[in-house]
Design brief:
With about 230 residues, the chain is an alpha/beta fold. The protein has two domains: about 5-130, 3-Layer(aba) Sandwich (Rossmann fold), CATH 3.40.50.2300; about 135-230, OB fold (Dihydrolipoamide Acetyltransferase, E2P), CATH 2.40.50. Helix content is about 35%, strand content about 35%. It has seven helices and 15 strands. The strands form four sheets. It has a five-stranded parallel sheet with strand order 2-1-3-4-5, sandwiched between helices. The protein is elongated. About 25% of the residues are buried.
Length: about 230
């Protein structure tokens, strides 16, 4: 069984939020939190380690609307989201569509409606966002595509991710980054390094070169890296 899809709910009606949570759990998704306004949503986004999808009530009772949260998710967190709404009027829909949601669910909705909406998001994200990761670089959220990565260096609790265009420093473990990327081209070569096997320039018994940078090669990973290097040659 694969990992359970992690979903955050932003809904100010507690009854609807709990009903949505129960439906999602029955469908074997994971609910990582429920927020009732913009401020709680910000806290959840900052503190919850992994979120795959967000449900947002458009008409939450705060100065900032659900659509404001939608723009935040699109522009800063790069997370897919689905709007929940009782409104189907053209003005509301037109305003919401500019924030690029993955879908809409009109209240009341059924469990089958919910399942279809989530599974469609999963399929679309596999097509358009596969092999990417969003990491924190200082105060910014940065989206990195796996095929742009040259190598990743671990230094205690920090990682330096070197891409074709930039270097990003983030607080994370090498194991978790490799697992989240889930890309066959990103391979561990040393306890402190992972590389994009398609970016290897030269390879020897004890080291390899990526982007003119010498990187140590551990005996533990040598056979796997040699096989990947030959396959890509």
């Amino acid at each position: 069984m694969g990992k359970r899809y992690k979903i955050l709910i932003i809904e100010d009606d507690l009854l609807i939020a709990e009903m949505l949570k129960e439906m999602l759990l029955e469908l074997n998704y994971s609910v990582v939190g429920i927020c009732k306004n913009y401020q709680e949503a910000i806290a959840g986004l900052q503190n919850i380690k992994k979120i795959d999808l967000v449900f947002i009530d458009i008409n939450i009772s705060s100065k900032k609307t659900g659509i404001d949260i939608g723009y935040l998710l699109k522009d800063e967190y790069h997370l897919p989201f689905i709007y929940l709404t009782s409104y189907s009027d053209p003005i509301t829909i037109k305003e919401a569509v500019n924030s690029l949601p993955q879908s809409y669910l009109l209240k009341p909705f059924s469990k089958s409606d919910l399942f279809s909406a989530v599974e469609l998001v999963k399929v679309n994200n596999k097509r358009s966002m596969i092999n990417s990761i969003v990491v924190k670089d200082g105060g910014n959220n940065v989206k990195i595509m796996a095929n742009d990565i040259l190598y990743i260096k671990s230094d205690k609790n920090y990682l330096e991710i070197v891409t074709k265009e930039k270097r990003v420093v983030t607080r994370c473990s090498l194991e978790s980054i490799i697992e989240e990327l889930n890309d066959q081209t990103i391979a561990r070569v040393h306890r402190s390094y992972a590389v994009n096997v398609n970016s290897i320039q030269t390879l020897s018994q004890l080291e390899l070169i990526v982007n003119d940078t010498m990187i140590p090669l551990s005996r533990k990973y040598k056979d796997e890296i040699y096989a990947a290097f030959k396959k890509g040659s």
